[in-house]
Write a structure and sequence with these properties.
about 0% strand; rod-shaped; mainly alpha
Length: about 55
């Protein structure tokens, strides 16, 4: 879960720099791509966790 938070923070920082710095729009696009990768990672992590979760009887 720490990896997910690091990816989100990196995406936010790249997005802010990409928006504020003139001529660095590609950083915004990279930030968006990193954010999407973080969401995919989260979904994969939640699916894997759900499979291993067993109810006690």
């Amino acid at each position: 879960m720490t990896f997910f938070l690091i990816l989100v923070i990196v995406a936010i920082v790249l997005g802010i720099i990409g928006v504020t710095a003139e001529g660095l729009l590609y950083l915004l696009l990279i930030g968006i791509a990193v954010f999407v990768a973080a969401l995919i990672y989260l979904v994969m992590h939640l699916r894997r966790s759900a499979r291993h979760h067993r109810t006690l009887r």
